[in-house]
Amino acid sequence: MERIYRGYISNATMNTIDKLNRVLQFVKDSFVGKNDIVDLLGISLIARENAFLLGPPGTAKSAIIRQLSDCIEGGRNFEYLLTRFTEPNEIFGPFDIRKLKEGELITNTEGMMPEASMVFLDEIFNANSAILNSLLMALNERLFRRGKETRKLPALMFVGASNVLPEDEALNALLDRFLIRIRCDYVDTDLLEEVLLAGWNMERQSAEKPVITPQEIIELQQRSRQVDLSPIRKQFVDVVHNLRNTGIKVSDRRAVKIQNLLAASALMCNRTEAIKSDLWVLKYIWDTEEQIEILAGIIDAIIEKDTTAQQVHPQARYNKTPNAEELIKEVQLLASRWHSGNLSFEEQNVIKDKLRYVQTRCNWIKKNEHKEHIRAEIEQLWKKMLEVV
Question: Does the chain have fewer CB atoms within 10 Å around its N or its C terminus?
């Protein structure tokens, strides 16, 4: 296998990265307001980690995956909507009748998940106990096991989707198999006209689409394992400790796997070394929706201190401009919750973490009078909190 030397990526590898970036840009151009989702799917693809999409129906979750899959030349896509009554045969394939007559239990996987290069499982938390164990093994170890039968899966990436997060402890194990978690919401009303135009053009799309082969993606996955993470390993360890102290669970296993995301971010920018801004991927390892803002506040504060001149991933510099009115409402809501009383120590810490996030977001408000007003409200709330201590 071609080596990546320190500070050097071959022209062949750069060309392959360019091919993937062209594919991702093609998908972005087809869907308005979904750039972050597409970029994160690209990171997951190189890292060979699974991604989970959370959002209501009609937010283009399956359409985005289908478009991306169509750009993988020679690959096979498997897409399925799970229900509580979904049977293993519907996912993995039925037993081969001819082999069954000979006394062998062999699965006929033709056109099913064990042969797919891209797998999309919609409403994944409908998975029942009959398929759960096989699904967990497929997601975690890329293996399909049924009786004495064991096969390696060619899947480049699994993507799961759901309208809600799981409440059942057994299904939390399923969510844990998806390292990256992405919110997929309706596009802002101001962009509705662009959405309609993009949807209309996509239905009549005849332009030749860019493509990349499964083998080229596998090569990028192998290259990413050679990225040097030592420049940011100490900062990464510090972030993990910080997140654990905040109440965000980052197990040792997940911490190890997150390194794949950091390396993928660096490689996508044609770098052989990771830099501080590559930590942006940690904003998408949340377990609950409450953690989304907390993670964003912690990670964005770290990234902003990165003064490197090296190329950074576009999503690392992307901070949505906050709405002053929404921020002041958030401060008032946090104040109301704080004054409600009878809060546990953990609940107090959650409110403090959210307030720190709002305080960070406040710095990005353009109108100075709005910024100063919100800062005054935040300072007043901090004083109230310190009185309790």
Answer: C
Q: pTM of the entire structure? A: 0.79
Q: Which residues make beta-bridge pairs with 214?
A: none
Instruction: List pLDDT tens digits, range 65-102.
Output: 999 999 999 888 999 999 999 998 999 988 777 766 66
| Tokens found for residue 288 | 């609950």
Report the chain's mean pLDDT, rounded to a whole number: 86
Q: Kind of pairing, strands 157-162 and 118-122? A: parallel
User: What is the mean predicted confidence (pLDDT) over 53-76?
Assistant: 91
What value, to the nearest 5°, has the Cα angle with vertex 170 and ends 109 and 281? 80
Position 17 scores a pLDDT of 94
Phi and psi at 143, nearest 5°, equal -125, 145
Q: Whose structure tokens read 């082969």? A: 213
Which residues, 6+ apart, have CB-to-CB distance to 224 below 8 Å?
A: 46, 47, 260, 263, 264, 266, 267
DSSP, residue by residue, 224-257:
HTTSB-GGGHHHHHHHHHHHHHHT----HHHHHH
Long-range contacts (CB closer than 8 Å, 24 or more residues apart) made by 283-286 = 284/40, 284/180, 284/181, 284/182, 285/179, 285/180, 285/181, 285/248, 285/250, 285/254, 285/258, 286/181, 286/248
- Rounded to whole angstroms, the Cα distance separating 255 from 363 reads 30
- Given this model, what pLDDT does residue 200 score? 67
Cα angle, residue 237 at apex, residues 233 and 242 outer, rounded to 5°: 145
Cβ neighbour number for residue 111 with a 10 Å cutoff: 11
